[in-house]
Design a protein that fits this description.
alpha/beta, Beta-Lactamase, nine-stranded mixed beta sheet, 15 strands, 34% helix
Length: 465
């Protein structure tokens, strides 16, 4: 499966797992499979305990190169297996060594999925059920944790690496892996059927505009247009539902910012990967065990205004920080970027209004709408289509107010009229509506011009509007 298939989910509509996805074998009765798993788990538990006791602090010694550490651990595991003198086939022994390596140096049974670049999400529902997302489709694997204690140890290992905590008093947490992958954990009693772990993976190499064009997420014309808008210091919101690729798109268009500008990023868990040298990254801090010391996104937005930023990028606005962002955009901090959860460009406006009211300010709705219409210039809306692909479906201009209503104008719209191919994949693409935006004068004042060919009319099905 190619990189395009991995991101956009163009798996041909086949419900069978792709090659390489572990599935539960039907060749043995479930009770025999469970018995075999229990025997292997007991042996792995014994060897794991021996390794921890023998190697101890050496496992966390940052001065030891990773290659050397892996060599030492592998050698100790093989010696322990020989000492246990348990008969097993060569392939079974090698599998046991790999699983113990993942247990000691990685994240147990999910380690192989985290290392697989074709897998975009890992979901664990209790210690028995591990699911993955590949090509936009979900598949159940035959991997599992030994028990709840084993699962909880891996959870604590993940969140502890970034100074977070999760327990009965604070049963859910957002964290990240060292490679930037997003992690969410929720524990009982809030999670009734057992702890749940969700890991949203990101590419080790940040995607570029060329990648998104190759994935058909957007077109060359739309990419050139967005680059001009970012360089021309327009305020842009990237919207969409969960898992539609908002953060990836935000990361790509953020890299259109000129390299000589100072950028301050603000995130709940640091995920953005920008190539700029003059970059300050801020991250939300949860409260400590006494319920004190929290640093909210809103606190960070306020602080960022005192840091002489050329650009402020908020990973996602989800609360009262929306008011602070609007005020910043309306008071000289233009060129700001962020994401927001919404089902359509029109819904973005309702969401922003609601979040401004969450700031606790008793503002008239019209005053909020006037701020929104003046602060935000462009909405880039992204969706995940039924075939699993992520596509930008609307690039919409906020034109201003007509009475009490904010007026919108679609500049680019995804053409659904192209239909599906024989495999059930969408054949449409993002097309220009032929309308020139009202902010072209603002772009020109900022030294950016856009050719007329960008807005050349392309036929599309008007039903999508």
């Amino acid at each position: 499966m190619g990189l395009n298939d991995r991101i956009n989910g163009q798996s041909g509509g086949d419900a069978r797992p792709p090659a390489g996805v572990p599935t539960v074998s039907p060749s043995l009765p479930k009770d025999r499979l469970d018995a075999a798993f229990d025997r292997q788990s007991e042996l792995k538990g014994v060897i794991h305990s021996q390794l921890i006791q023998e190697l101890g602090p050496r496992l966390y010694n940052q001065s030891v190169p990773e290659i050397e550490l892996r060599r030492i651990v592998r050698q100790k595991i093989e010696e322990a297996l020989i000492h246990e003198n348990t008969p097993m086939a060569r392939t079974e022994r090698q599998e046991m060594v790999d699983e113990l390596m993942a247990e000691v140096l990685g994240y147990g049974p999910i380690e192989e999925f985290l290392r697989d670049p074709s897998i975009t999400e890992v979901m664990v529902n209790g210690y028995r059920d591990i699911y993955i997302e590949r090509g936009g489709k979900l598949y159940k694997t035959d991997k599992r944790f030994r028990d709840d204690g084993h699962f909880n140890r891996i959870i604590q290992k993940i969140v502890g690496q970034v100074g977070r905590r999760v327990d009965e008093s604070s049963p859910y947490v957002d964290a990240r892996l060292p490679d930037g992958s997003r992690v969410n954990v929720i524990l009982p009693p809030v999670a009734v059927r057992g702890a749940a772990l969700t890991i949203r993976k990101f590419s080790t190499e940040p995607f570029t505009a060329e990648d998104l064009i190759g994935f058909h997420t957007l077109t060359r014309r739309a990419s050139d247009f967005l680059e001009a808008c970012v360089r021309g210091r327009l305020n842009i919101l990237v919207s969409g539902g969960t898992g539609t690729g908002k953060t990836t798109t935000l990361n790509v268009i953020s890299n259109y910012i000129p390299k000589d500008e100072r950028i301050v990023t603000i995130e709940d868990a640091a995920e953005l990967k920008l190539w700029h040298e003059h970059l300050v990254s801020l991250e939300h801090r949860p409260p400590n065990i006494e319920g004190k010391g929290e640093v909210t996104i809103r606190d960070l937005v306020r602080n960022a205004l005192r840091m002489r930023p050329d650009r402020i990028i908020v990973g996602e606005i989800r609360g009262g920080e929306a008011l602070d962002m609007l005020q910043a955009m309306n008071t000289g901090h233009d060129g700001s970027l962020s994401t927001v959860h919404a089902n359509s460009p029109r819904d973005v406006l309702s969401r922003v209004e609601t979040m401004v009211l969450m700031a606790g300010m008793d503002l008239p709705v019209r005053a909020i709408r006037e701020q929104v219409s003046r602060a935000i210039h462009l909405i880039v809306h992204q969706g995940r289509l039924p075939d699993g692909s992520r596509r930008i479906t609307h690039i919409t201009e906020i034109q201003g107010m007509e009475g009490d209503v904010i007026t919108l104008q679609n500049l680019f719209v995804y053409d659904f009229s192209a239909g599906l191919d024989k495999d059930g994949n969408h054949m449409g693409r993002l097309k220009s509506t032929g309308i020139r935006p009202a902010f072209l004068g603002l772009l020109k004042n900022n030294g950016v011009t856009i050719g007329d060919d960008v807005f050349a009319f392309e036929t599309y099905d008007t039903a999508v509007l």
